[in-house]
Design goal:
The structure is a homodimer of 179-residue chains. By secondary structure, chain A is of the alpha+beta class. In chain A, 22% of the residues lie in helices and 44% in strands. At the A-B interface, β1, β2, β3, β5 and β6 of A face β1, β2, β3, β5 and β6 of B.
Chain lengths: 179, 179
Amino acid sequence: MRETGISSEAVYSGALLVVRRDRVRLPDGRESVREYIRHPGASAVVPIHGNGDVVLLRQFRYPAGKVFIEVPAGKRDPGESPETTAIRELLEEAGVRAGKVVQIGHFYPGIGYSDEVIHIFAGTDLEETPSATDEDEFVRPFRVPFEEAVRMVHAGEIDDAKTAICLLRVWEWWTRRLR
Amino acid sequence: MRETGISSEAVYSGALLVVRRDRVRLPDGRESVREYIRHPGASAVVPIHGNGDVVLLRQFRYPAGKVFIEVPAGKRDPGESPETTAIRELLEEAGVRAGKVVQIGHFYPGIGYSDEVIHIFAGTDLEETPSATDEDEFVRPFRVPFEEAVRMVHAGEIDDAKTAICLLRVWEWWTRRLR
């Protein structure tokens, strides 16, 4: 079933995206071409307050041209562990410091044209930092009961893939702990 | 919160990927650059047999270099409705004809660098076609109880984002009907 690389070429290197184009050998012996984005990987966190609220963000995303509801998430910096990325993004985007982060799993957002993997975390023992109260023009954090966030996924009000998966998988982990 | 486009340029047009690079005006008045992939959109289907089995596929994906478990899915051809794409992919990839397809929702797999939207369908009243029994070297369909597929998502054995979301959202719709 495997495809094996014959040659590989960086066909576009931009500020954000690196596109590669590889010649590959298919399982039946023929040759084909694969184009894909190289990505350093990312972490995404569901921050859970003691009262059961989660912290989500409203953020405008240019490619689709609309505001999405998202969990805090971001790309790994060079040499950074997925856990460190999760803690950093939580602080930068949601303005909360997590006493504890637990890795729940991982997923691949776009297997057809990217090698990106996103690590899923739950963040607990939260402490709000002063920046949490700064509304900025780019990322707006808000609190919502976890159960309501899950309802929003099933109702299609939350339609960002990483946020949907993180909420549903962390919810399953969270409610299993309480049973 | 919005960003508005100032200018837009296709910086890479390959066999599969089209990358655009836009200059944008940020909400605070500064300028920045956004790079992203233009995508025609896609449909993904959870095919559900009368006995409660779903049909999934094993498929090797070159960018991440591994075999993934997936729901049947594919890009929209020009002029095709999401429903037609769903029915076509079901036949081509899983070898089943669906008497009925129902749209359950949609999601955006990669809002940071793509405008792709994936429409989620449930396919029922399935009829296996002769091609369903052909094992090919690229896509291998198999049947598994729906509940077991959901367990595999939460266990991380299914780690393709579109498949995880489709299974969890269609499962919620499916079990709600039976309650």
